[in-house]
Write the structure tokens for this entry.
Amino acid sequence: MSISMLLISLLCLPLLGAIINGLYGKHLSKGISGGIGTATVAISFLIVLTFFGQISEPVKVTLFRLIHLDSFDINVSFLIDQLSVWMALIITGIGTLIHLFSMGYMKHDEGYYKFFTYLNLFIFAMLLLVLGSNYFVLFFGWEGVGICSFLLIGFHYSDPIKGISNSLAARKAFVMNRIGDAGLVFAAFMLLNTFHTLEFDSIAKMVKEGGVEGISMNSILIIAITLCLFLAATGKSAQIPLFTWLPDAMAGPTPVSALIHAATMVTAGIYMVTRSNFLFELAPYAKDVMLYIGVATSLVAAFMALRQNDIKKVLAYSTVSQLGLMVVALGLGAYTVAIFHVTTHAFFKALLFLGSGSVIHGMSDEQDIRMMGGLRKIMPITHLTFLIGTLAISGFPLFSGFYSKDEIIGYLFVENPILYGVMMFSIVLTAVYMFRLYFLTFHGEFRGTEHQKDHAHESPISMTLPLMVLAVLSVFGGLLNLPGLFLHQGAHWLNHYLSGAAGLGLIEHPESNVNTTLLLMGVASSVSIAILIWAYVTYVKQGSLAKADSDLKGWELLSSKKLYWDELYHALITKPVEWLGEQLKQVIEIKVLNAGIFGLAALTEKTGNQVRKLQNGLVSSYLFWMVIGLIMLIVSYLINTIHWN
Amino acid sequence: MGSSATVNIDFFVILASLLFVIGAFGVMIRRNMIVLLMCIELMLNAVNLLFVSFSTYYGNADAQIFVFFIIVVAAAEATVGLSILILAYRHLRSIDVSIFNKLKG
Amino acid sequence: MELVLIPLLLGVLSFFIPSKWVKNTSILFALISLSLVLVRLGSFDPKYIEYVFHTGKVFKLGLTFEMAYDGIGIVMLSLSNLVIFLVALANYNKTEANSPLFAGLMFIMQFGLNGLFAAQDAVLFYVFWEFTLIPVFLMLYWFGAKENQQNLLKFFLYTLFGSLFMLLSILAIGVYSTSYAYEAIQYTAIPAKYACWIFTGFLIAFAVKIPLFPFHTWQPNTYSTAPMAGTMLLSAIMLKMALFGMIKWMIGLNQSALTFWQWPVIILGVIGILYGAFIAMREINIRKVFAFASISHLGLIAAGIMVFSIDSIQGSIIQMINHSLIAIGLFLAAGIIEDRMGTTNLREMGGIAKIAPQFGFWFGVILFISLSVPMTAGFIGEFLLIKAIFDFNVWMGILSALTLVIGAVYMIRAYQMSSMGAPTMATFSDLKWNEVSVFALITILAVTLGLYPDFIFSIVKPSIKHMLEAGADTQLIIK
């Protein structure tokens, strides 16, 4: 089959799955409905694998012309190069596993077929996002994943207790993403006005050749474009200031959190910035902004995660924190490294979320870690895989997270040692809260209700199989980009692979020397081991537990209240906006404009009433007015005829 | 008229104007309906006077024909007016126009 | 000629149809007139002007009776016929649908609309402009909420008042032009110092009808008290008359007033975008939410037209079509809720999607279409319009793009308050076949145009180019 046929089937399969499930899902059995959903994504994965084997040069497939205007054309076209294939591989690969997991997880849900409809739709939109060859098609996917995210966060919108809060969380996510989308739209306007095209490869070529008006190192235009793009990325990839939607998004079912809010959609911002690297390379100022925002986000989110008691909330904040780390990599210009961390993060974070899903499933929908404990005996597979995930994310030596994190902070150390220190602190916090989560959930005594204890069980094979696959990937994923330290031939395989992508040359970085690298690795390893021991002692040996909300003081209170960030936004943005709306409605609309119009009507009526009095029925007064009129006519005639000179 | 001494046309105009103004003021300020009707006659006759004097002044008889029309119309008007007056008097026991205000808005 | 006369005939005929048949016949009639215009659309060549009625003579007082359409005209004609068809379909199981009077008024309105979009003579345009007001007024008076006659009067007088200025302007044009025919006016040189004021009269009439902030106060109350079909007709097609008027009778004739008022109107448009959006965000009457949303959407279109570049006008045309579709969809959804729950108060609703999943689904789809998500016509429209405003002035562009964000807030708020959460009612009968087909048709059209906007662009582009040049030429003659 030709590559364009393959591409079309790759895109259309998930869409087809969504259509079948959406239209006929009600009449299908759960097995078939879920099977269709999973199979379509799995086949897509196989197709992407064939691309992976074939691609050496970027291939562009144009399907049709969308808009034809005098000043520009926009095509629906797709770019198959190393970067997009790699992203598609992650999306469909992890997507398949999560679909499989959902077949077990959502078994008792009445909206089963709807869930698979939305998931398939999401995969379709996400593939559009990464495969699109221009910002316009990227935006199609960008908004599409936003919609699917909205639908899936609010999936249980009619729940008697949580329905309202679920739907509010969905709304919050959509609205905050829309702010970012506006950034992308503006970037597209400026790009169109400057380059008259939105194709990545054409823009890259023009930038490289130079000579485009307004495009030069640190020009205002390029900084505006890149900052707008980054604004979009902060929305999708949950960075300060637009990150607060992601923790709330945990209202969605757990597989959704794993797929959308950990592994794929939230990395769309990272992907988009990587795609636009040729623009960011011209805007060191924008890169600095990214660097600082990344560090700040990472630190803030890690701090917030310390005293969360909802198993998914902890993971959500850790996602924000990890995304911050990726943004740091982007800010350093280490785009391929960012993608490397996207990859490993997709493995272990999906694993962690699915593991937490398995826990929640086994605990009859309990999410509070204060009600858990001792689950390692009841759920051995979940326990083991969760442990692997925890080790991977906290940078335990030789696990995948170790390599990707290490590479980023290695670059950071060369660039800016102070920020390195800050970042290292955030990494320490990551290890602290992850081990806390792990020990409180799986060790110690069972603290849940009797009912939960009787029901607690290991999940079915459809759920544990994805866990095991992801666990293997989480352990060995780091080998994809093994540093040259260990392996001189084929080192940095992923970097070299991705460098073939359109517009994405291999950007050389000041590598620190071998000794520094070793030192940094040693520091990172010893820190994570030390914290493991500390956490073990604290939570297992001393058996300390999460405190009740009322006992929290000082920094613990701050952490559990998320630094009052939501309250701050509520007071600074939501309230004033609502106030303004209310004022406009009550004052301007009713008291000024409406009253003005009715006032005009009343004025007319009053004037009429006054004038009516002239008609008093007295002939003599009529005559009087007539004479007055006559006199005035005569006077005006005289004035007009007499020549004043 | 021929060679007989001609009176300046201005005197006729002034006289007619005076008559007209007297009539108009009478209509405006008097309340007795008979006086009102008389004042209207006065105004009409002021106009008649103007017509006749200008007719003589220009030697054109057209205006005099108009005067006849006006006299006829004035006579008709007086008849109608006086009959209304009688009816009104029967009805309201008064010929004061200030109480004839049933038509006001 | 058939394009204009057949709706009139059908309208008169509708008065005499027994009330038990009338809801079926009105769909049939709407289909007939829709197919008439679609046949013309199919054979239309964008390069030429096609005459509907042609005498080639100038009658007394410089009047002519030419009727013709160019690319924009045929698109608007198709749109108006489509809207009438959708309204007839959406209205099918309302009580008004059984009234021959209602059906008759609807087709008489259709006659007026077709005449208006085809009129090639300023006086004829004005006559049809005022004529369309009569059936809609009667519709609202006889079938609308009885307690709100004051607002109805406000609507009627307000729009009438606006049109008065247009009449004056048309009379003033008559002083300079040999006839009121479109081409004649196009090639008439009007002294620069008068041209601006003459066309300002047009602008006032259009601004009231669009409605542009702050002339909009007739709109929300009228929308919330009118019968459902009346609201649909008003928002889906009557407002488009004004936008069409701006394009054909201002940009195409003489751009001096547009140039003069460009900044103020764009600012008013942008204020309208924000103002409508902010109030929609706080409104709890579902119909008023959509009414203010409509002010917001139309503010964007009006501001876009005022940029009068070729891209912005193409964007505005596609956005007009999109707005007609979503207006029908949204007001249908509001009407369904109102019918089955007896309330328009969002606070009393909740969880409808749970009880009536089909309604929940389609309402959601319409909602996303109205949020202009990619792959719908609205996205293309908003993209081009905001880009045009952005190119005109960066800050105006940024402010108008806030509609993306606030739009999401109020639309999703309306959906969330009405359809999400735990159900507050015991029963809510799900959609009937006609309602599903309206929603489905809207969706299909919006998505088709979203993926293939070139269909519209290729039709309207030559006309827009011609208008832009012709209107600008007149200015050159003056100077």
